[in-house]
Structures
1.
Amino acid sequence: MSQNPQNIQSVLNETRSFVPSLKATSSVPDMATYEALCAEAVRDEQGFWARLGRENLDWHKPFTQTLDESNAPFYRWYGDGLLNASYNCLDRHVLAGRGDVTAIISESDSGVVTRVTYAELLARVCQMANVLKSLGVQKSDRVIIYMPMSIEGIVAMQACARIGATHSVVFGGFSAKAIHERVIDAGAVLIITADAQTRGGKQLGLKLVVDEALALGGCDTVRHVLVNQRTEQGCDMVVGRDLALEPLLAQQSTDCVPEWVDAEHPLFVLYTSGSTGTPKGVQHSTGGYLMWATQTMKWSFDITAQDVFWCTADIGWITGHTYVCYGPLSCGATQLVFEGIPTYPDASRFWQMIERHRCSIFYTAPTAIRSLIKAADMDEQVHPKKYDLSSLRILGTVGEPINPEAWMWYHKQVGGERCPIMDTFWQTETGGHVITPLPAATPLTPGSCTLPLPGIQAAIVDETGEDVENGQGGLLVIKRPWPSMIRTIWNNPERFKAGYYPEELGGRYYLAGDGAVRHSDTTYFQIMGRIDDVLNVSGHRLGTMEIESALVAHPMVAEAAVVGKPDEVSGEAICAFVVLKSAIPEGEAAVKLANELREWVKHEIGPIAKPKDIRFGDNLPKTRSGKIMRRLLRSIAKDEAITQDTSTLENPAILDQLRTSVV
Ligand code: 6R9
């Protein structure tokens, strides 16, 4: 495990506690209610989950079985029930007479505000679903969505759900190669994209990246590319394959009967980085997933009809699936959707938008908070205190650990010391929150995600699966299945089983892939970071192997090793150690080559994967058996003194060279 005891000590020494002052509109008004729910989930596991399944969703055919574990770890939830996710997100609110409620307030990069009601959104989703059907897309077909953060992106996802097609959203910042890999692995029949997206005042082409992906070949399953025209930029269209979306929508009816699917039907596959190989397609269900997306909106965010909810995550990530596309809509809430970036036109954009739209629940990533702290320190005008943030009542963070200083700033400067901060720990694989405070109940400690939600049997174990004592670090596991958990890895059930239910732990616990420790007094969980070769850069997951493969694909690179190093803003930064096929360049030439490699990685994976540091060496530190000594590289990346045993190192001289060669 990568964590060190000093780290554990410093976080466990955090003793500040913030007792909730929020008035409870929530179903969990205090700790006693929370504890009663936890006890119910243990005493009557099936009854507890069945109750939540019934309370949160409308079923076309009610389920009679709750959990089926006969083929563990391929668990089935609500298996004989029939439902439709888009019906639950749209129709049921309209049928209940709430069609005039604003579903989405969308703000573009340049500040244009568009509102849609639930009735309008339903009509648009139906038209989109009818377009898909007219192109022959059927239940269970896979559709790739490569769209900006927009109403159109959400409509595309909901339309797939309506006809029972499984969507796979690819983040708009990913490269042609990333799209290509996903199209092939998913066997997609259709791609929905836009000509371009506008972020930070710049127009970035999307369709041309799709063209490049399809030109890589082997994508024979793709019959059409649907193009949403968002800018004046336009794009090239391949006759017969590419279709302009808007004229097709205009021809379609605003009614579309939802396709009733069984609860286990795959709603979506979302690719995420693992420690080895190519990204894996995390497959989620319809019933269990949507139940938890809905329930966690109520528990973690206390969502009500009066709220304006804003989750800043992109629909290309799991947070944008659960807390933009599905959770808020399933709850019939009003939410804000933003296409731009937090620093354009300046770093007060978030605060201005909260003020403008009277946002009451704001959910963002620690990286964004840290970069806005920096900006506010440098320029008074973009400081949150300059704006009226009195509408806020609950704050949230997600994606990476939040350091106590950033937590305190968020609490004081944004939340006016009045709003509880929900530090929500979860993963693409968990579908929704698993360890998080509850706004009216849980006393908060800066930097801790506090306690598991009712029904989530989170624990910390050692490498053999035995529980460790509080105060001791170990592996974070979840001991019992829960409805919104990953069902399998698309096309690769073996990888699912080996990766998440490893034999070493007896094959019975879900292994999260994070190290954690519980506080001895409060029993609060503290996440210590990934235990595998997955980096977390600005809250985005990236496999070191993926970046290494991208680097070695460059004609000048012989070998590469990638590690993370702590970074003030992005949490973790990428540091690449590179061995060239030719002599190491010096001075300007070294900088030029390093920049070329950064551009290369950007092109291969996407801009988020660009290494911050690049160090050229004649070789990499290896053991006599040829293994790269990553622990050593981590110390070098941090400019730390090397305390590890280097006696097994075959080529010790290499260390000095790698230390001094940063570009
Ligand atoms: C939702 C999401 C999952 C990984 C996870 C962990 C880190 C997420 C966190 C957190 C500390 C939190 N992580 N939330 N670490 N505190 N509140 O981010 O999913 O992209 O799959 O990343 O992110 O390391 O394992 P995903």
Note: The first helix runs from residue 5 to 12.
2.
Amino acid sequence: ASTLGAQAATSGRYFGTAVAAGRLGDSTYSTILDREFNMITPENEMKWDTTEPSRGSFNFGPADQIVNHAQAHGQRMRGHTLVWYQQLPGWVSSIGDANTLRSVMDNHITTEMTHFKGKIYAWDVVNEAFADGSSQHRSSVFQNVLGNGFIEEAFRTARAADPSAKLCYNDYNIENWSDAKTQGVFAMVKDFKARGVPIDCVGFQSHFGSGGPPASFQTTLQNFAALGVDVQLTELDIAQAPATAYSNTVKDCVNVSRCAGITVWGIRDSDSWRSGDNPLLFDGNGNKKAAYDAVLSALGGG
Ligand code: G3I
């Protein structure tokens, strides 16, 4: 096939991108989106500061715009993200009472997942809960007030809200197998599977420097998959977008049968959160870069 999404589909995978609702009206942007990508992650529109800016007052307008676009164009959705210490409104971070915070967290998960029920392929239920350089959770209001069990609580609540959505744990710097952070997340997933805590997938954000993925990335993906979860590359971008680094990354996924798909974190370099690094597959004018051809060919197409 001659597009990323269609080529990924030949092996049962998807190829997605992060989308900003405010850019859907840009025809260069939406033309590439609808030609190349069959999975969409809202870049910011499903985060807590947008969806529940004050307690019990929900705003799904910007996310609905993206979901409606996806439905009209046959694209599936990844939901991002329900429980994260960033883009968290001040009213949540200042809660000090455990019963209050637990009910606020559970209500946020249930209300947001119920609103989008049946329309989301996979949810990033918890994002970036582990500390860098460590196997422990990072400090956050959820960790500090609810303790280690907040992640399990979030996943159990999520399963009850939409039993048909895949439930993912998503993080960065967990691509290198020997890193303490990777080992910490691996131990959590192993424990969840052993105790029947509902988890279906692990998202590897894959924000790489110009060298691309660590040499052990495929091993990491394989080891997680062996625990009985899907693995997904959820926010891929690579500084300067070297063709070889992109090709190596795609092959690491394609070589693992439970690697369900790849999402790049934006369309054109000018759309990127790290636009100074020119890390994406299309330049600012929407032209395909060398990395695009490398990705298409690593997926087996071209
Ligand atoms: O919407 C406001 C706008 O009203 C205001 O005028 C403007 C002024 O700065 O800010 C706008 O909000 C910005 C928002 O993006 C939308 O553009 C925020 O400041 C900015 O912080 C926010 O950045 C996002 C970042 O997450 C926040 O942590 C990036 O777009 C988004 O790409 C990035 O994505 C994260 C993933 O969710 C999780 N993994 C890491 C990844 C990269 O940081």
Note: The beta strands are 14-19, 39-42, 76-83, 122-127, 166-171, 201-204, 207-208, 230-238, 259-264.
